[in-house]
Write a structure and sequence with these properties.
elongated, mainly alpha, 159 residues
Amino acid sequence: MARGKNKATKAGVGAVASARAAAHNPYVQRLMDDDDLRQNLQDAYEAARKAYGRIDGKGPTKAVLDDRKTQKELKRAGKSLSEAADALRGAKGKRKRRRRGGLLLILLVGAGAAVAMSEDLRKRVLDLLFGAEEEFEYTSTTMPPPAVPTPPSGPAGTA
């Protein structure tokens, strides 16, 4: 019997130590102090519970792909969890997304389309990149040059 009581005592001491450690945890402190964080977690739980209730009667694949209300509840749960995670991290407001590459991509595609469509612009760009095109006359080296008739050799004009 003493052995069982000893285990219970150790478990109780461990629980008290865990509670004390949790009280000093910054995430637990934020959860206790932040009403919006608690509300976001509650909204996420309720939305996920409603979505699960709608999935229960159908197959999960069909419910997620076909049922608009299930999709809406899952989206709401995800948004609430995202906001709760931002609040836990201490993110102020929404995160700003930087889209520097998007404008550059649009400019490059537009420039490429303009060069492809306009022959004059294409010639100008090629001249800038590779230098002006030189005019030259092509002579084939695989064919012998045409034979030039030679004047007959011999005395000329003996009458």
